[in-house]
Amino acid sequence: MSLSLGRRTAALIAGAGLALALITPAGGASATPTCTTTPRIDGSFIQPALVDGWSSAQLTSEFSTLTNACITSQVLQWTADTKASTTVYPSSLSGYAQSTSTDVVSRVLTAADTAGVVEYLGLQTDDDWWNTYANDTTWLSGQATKANALADDLYNHYGTHTSFAGWYLPFEVDNWNFTSTSSWSAMASFYTTIANHLHALTPGKPVIISPFFNTSGGQTSSQWTTMWSTILASAPIDVIALQDGIGAGHASTSQLATWFAATKSAITSARPATALWADSETFNPDFTPMPIAQLVADLTAVAPYVSKTLSFSYDHYDSPLVVPAVYDTTYRGYLSSGTVETSAPSVPSSLSATSSGVTSVALSWTASTDNVGIAGYKLYRGGSLVKVIQGTGTTFTDAGLSPSTSYSYRLAAFDAAGNVSAQSTAASATTAAAPAADPVVSSGKAYTSTLAADAGYPDSSGTELTNGTTGSSSYADAAWQGRNTGSPYSFTIDLGATKTVTQVGTSWLQTKSLYIFLPSSIQVSVSTTGSSFTPLVALPAPNVSDADQRYTYAAYGLSGSGRYVKFTVTPASSAWSFADEATVRGH
Fold this sequence. Notes:
This protein is α/β, with parallel strands linked by helices. The protein is built from 12 helices and 27 strands. It is globular, with a radius of gyration of 25 Å. The two termini are 42 Å apart.
């Protein structure tokens, strides 16, 4: 089974974690945008939760931000979840419930009508896609039927909106999981069934798909051409908006021309009427906003091959409602001048580090300055970049550290263009000692899980989490068990008798190139009965480098009583999480 994943849900669930307070920016964008500079972004994807959380005033402000950045189209990524049987609008579909507090579809279309932005409606998402792909043709056929029914319902509700411009199919095809001709045939049939229906329902409105490639493996670019030539020979897709994969770590800028040319070649040979667009990523692999200079370099690399550029996503990673306003300001500065500014910020000064406990160090510094504005700071620990701190704040707590350990820090300021200052002078601190450790009371104990491990990376013995066998930094190590989900799940250890819990730890894997991420948080709770649990400690995501690594979440000096210890895991995104051990100490 391939571990290569798309970045649609992954990037933005994780990216939502960097969101600032949802407030309308004080300044606002220029009233007269400069829309002659090329290359530039023409459109942006947006996910329903972001819209649902905005007030009407904020949504209006967001569309002003888009038009002031010369963005004239938007894609609402999905409107339903067929696995959860939910919609983001009050649908007439039998068996579906609305998952949002507002009618997201109506709100974006109404705002787009007013702003003069065209809107493409995404059909359904379904997490089973990432496990099924085209291997289960019965499931795929059922999804096509559901897509068509969803489109009918959406058109009946919203077809009169002037901004409604077409459709987007959220299921993403890639170069890792579609290597057989049978999978190509299955996807061609899937696309044909839906596209024919949509073309009959809304003549002249395009059907868009957004495949991706990962250059670390899978098909070569020439095999990719063959696959898409085969699919397009029968599937009437109007637009391929090819993901550039830069933010996801799937490709480098220098590789883009090869893959976009390969896709263009397939279109030219099989279906010349199909348009090739770019779907350019505006986030970094750590789900922070991409520097504008990097974005412009990526846009430039694909410009010879595409007729339009969507972004993933200006709404989520460049909007002043979500990230520091300096990203939007810097991008609009590029549109005005045709170049990205190159002045670096000043060096942060007066960095200090103070131990704030067994596992944390408190940091403070004097702010840097910049000709446009500071976007944030890069924190280096022991010479490795471990955290990108967004915003202009001058304090930070580095948590998840080891007891009785000396840490040395340096700091560098950066702006939205990607200019970075020199590093500050170093500051050091030593964490406090942990209390004396009690015996391990979880060794070999039974446990249950609310979500079974994936069949490709199973809990083969049913005791992997408590057997004391630790995994290496390779996901192929049999000690690891993997789950592919963005939803919280838990495992509960039965200690066999009530114990006083004084220390907990649990080990996880990070391999970012394969979308194996450390959890964003782990909540540990205790219970004497196994039915009602009391929170014991919350373990936040650590600040670590991007290197492949095994990391242990741990807490010391606890005082909780229970026979059952529950670890509730919140994934960093809709991707993979791999665990190998959970340890409880006590008496």
